[in-house]
């Protein structure tokens, strides 16, 4: 039995639902109603993401005068899949573990997962919500408030079970570097960073814009956790395509990020920088690396990319794939690199297998040698994050 | 040696460059200058696709008053990869085999490829260029003219070496059905059809719009060859991303088409309809089918998709993957279905390995049993297309 009891499941992708007070209790009162806060509204039907709807008396975030109805962003753990088109629209619609790090520990224990890395929800996974705010001072305070909440409160509840993660004020490079230093001082071990900055109106990985941030991250041994969707784009689907069409394709975002990064100067400038493709899946990695190498071989001469280093060697040194279930990826682990695979439980989203995560991983690892199973379940994540507080 | 001399290479994806007279010699003269024709112009620099440029005295298509400078759409076979940023802009810039089906036979012989399936170039791969023409009568005549040129002239040069393919007047369903019947009478064995009609302003596969065409295609045993890019979209890349970034990701279009089709009613309504993903690559297929199945299992209940039939079983019955080189796909062939794999040479584009196609395939099939190699190289295509005129 490869997945043995002593092997901890360290998940590098889960999601925290913010409570109503995250910003109102931390951001200076001078901003008044612009501060992100929760209001109750009566709605006929409000259309949420992925064609989900909500109706009746719902709770909604309000930030800088704008309403954001998706309180319970895909917080469906424990709900009957037949009801998944109705997004949780009130805190009392969700399991308390979604927003309460104390209650969540019991859910993690039921799930057999030791540690989680909790991405933001209202701020969006890489904090890009606050790019939308015209008041940049407020936006910066909101980023700081979320980092304080996550690093001091949430992780403080169980420092050996919650992986410290931070987000950055992406619109202001100096503020990024300052906040990164501050987050490191507060114990952050990784940064949630966009998979592609260009759709956000920010410079791409093909410029030197992000160098100060990447240099600091590399120096501090802080990986960039790039969750699919953080570019603000999703794969194109027909407007009338049913929800499963886009949900099944989200890994394509991570494939795009891979091609973009490997053919950019990033890992040449920062050879020790690490990037993990949160929720990207893994079974496509051998195909795409072969494809990128093949294109690079012939297109490198005229296109301005580095001509010396085969892109797949950069993946092996700088990138990591993440999976919830991906039998193709597990079976292809030697082509991907056993040491480059990370596990995730994605609680409390619809892709999560809560409360059976451990059981499913154990089945998936049936034919995997013990030492490889231990790497995939626990050790790779601890090595990447330089975090293993229980040892 | 799996790839034995008696095994013919039947390629299901190549590209024909139209000569200047294709339409002027066939379309009624009444349309005058609106008829697609070639003009010579002097340009400083004209930007073409994929950041390629051309300069000097170039030849350009002109259709309905609009100029289309890319005469030699990626027609780079035989050219030094260091010059690939400069697109062939004159017929005398390309190997004659690009536009001359007689000269092409010698190139095919050098390449070790027995048969090719030649997609349109100026009309775009699925004929969607003619969606741009306001004069629908002219557009229909242009579609007919291309089909005549391909089916009567091009294939007529060597009926046992060129696979008869047609395109359709997609803006007019009745005209589609009529032209499909006419093309079948002229010997067509397959249809080049868009991978997703929605970006073209046409109904998606989630409607019943295309049913008359699909019914006829199914009845006639005519597969739909869906070349990546025929939706008119390409994967998003930063504007400053070097060319290899988008070139390496084109298979993502085929992944999207796969998710879209398998979660649509198409193969439920037309259980014998066949779709091949031209140039999509194959190594991603096991990953994506696993992912689609997994999402379908839980999201099927509320989303309106068919709840009975696992999507991967539809792939095994209705879809085909195509590759030029794809070692991951060959090694995973049993998960994909040895019988669902098609070979292609992609002459004369930059992805082609001309004139070493046969050699490369032989190497790729080194560890493949003879009977499987024969299926992949020749028999699968012949079965799909119901075409094997040399037997």
Protein architecture, described:
The structure is a homodimer of 391-residue chains. Helix content of chain A is 35%, strand content 12%. The two termini of chain A are 23 Å apart. In chain A, the strands form three sheets. In chain A, strands 6-7-8-9-10-11 form a six-stranded parallel sheet. In chain A, strands 2-3-4 form a three-stranded antiparallel sheet, with no helix packed on it. In chain A, strands 1-5 form a two-stranded parallel sheet. By secondary structure, chain A is of the alpha/beta class. The first copy, chain A, has helices at residues 101-111, 136-157, 173-185, 211-220, 243-247, 251-262, 266-269, 285-303, 311-318, 327-331, 333-336, 357-364, 370-385; strands spanning 14-15, 37-47, 53-63, 66-68, 118-119, 165-166, 190-192, 224-225, 275-277, 319-323, 341-343. The first copy, chain A, has one domain: Metal-dependent hydrolases (TIM Barrel, Alpha-Beta Barrel). The interface between A and B is large, with 67 and 67 residues.
């Amino acid at each position: 039995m490869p997945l043995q009891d002593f092997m901890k499941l360290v998940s590098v992708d889960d999601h925290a639902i913010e409570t109503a007070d995250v910003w109102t209790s931390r951001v200076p009162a001078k901003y008044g109603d612009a501060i992100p806060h929760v209001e109750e509204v009566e709605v006929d039907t409000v259309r949420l993401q992925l064609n989900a709807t909500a109706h009746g008396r719902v709770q909604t975030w309000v930030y800088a005068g704008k309403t954001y109805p998706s309180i319970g962003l895909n917080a469906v753990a424990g709900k009957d899949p037949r009801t998944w088109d109705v997004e949780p629209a009130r805190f009392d619609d969700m399991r308390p573990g979604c927003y309460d790090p104390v209650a969540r520990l019991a859910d993690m224990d039921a799930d057999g997962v030791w540690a989680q890395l909790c991405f933001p929800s209202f701020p969006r996974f890489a904090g890009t919500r606050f790019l939308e705010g015209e008041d940049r001072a407020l936006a910066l305070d909101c980023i700081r408030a979320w980092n304080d909440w996550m690093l001091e409160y949430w992780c403080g509840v169980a420092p050996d079970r919650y992986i410290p993660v931070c987000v950055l004020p992406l619109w202001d490079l100096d503020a990024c570097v300052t906040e990164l230093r501050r987050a490191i001082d507060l114990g952050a071990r990784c940064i949630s960073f966009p998979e592609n900055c260009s759709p956000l109106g920010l410079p791409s990985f093909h410029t030197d814009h992000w160098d100060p941030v990447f240099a600091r991250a590399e120096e501090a041994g802080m990986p960039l956790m790039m969750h699919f969707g953080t570019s603000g784009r999703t794969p194109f689907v027909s407007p009338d395509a049913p929800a499963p069409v886009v949900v099944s394709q989200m890994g394509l975002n991570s494939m795009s990020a891979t091609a973009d990064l490997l053919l950019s100067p990033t890992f040449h400038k920062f050879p020790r920088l690490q990037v993990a493709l949160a929720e990207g899946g893994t079974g496509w990695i051998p195909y795409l690396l072969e494809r990128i190498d093949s294109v690079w071989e012939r297109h490198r001469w005229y296109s301005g990319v580095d001509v010396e280093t085969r892109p797949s060697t950069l993946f092996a040194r700088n990138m990591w794939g993440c999976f919830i279930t991906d039998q193709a990826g597990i079976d292809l682990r030697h082509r991907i690199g056993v040491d480059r695979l990370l596990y995730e439980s994605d609680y409390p989203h619809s892709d999560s297998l809560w409360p059976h995560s451990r059981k499913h991983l154990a089945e998936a690892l049936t034919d995997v040698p013990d030492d490889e199973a231990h790497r995939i379940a626990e050790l790779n994540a601890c090595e990447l994050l330089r975090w293993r507080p229980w040892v």
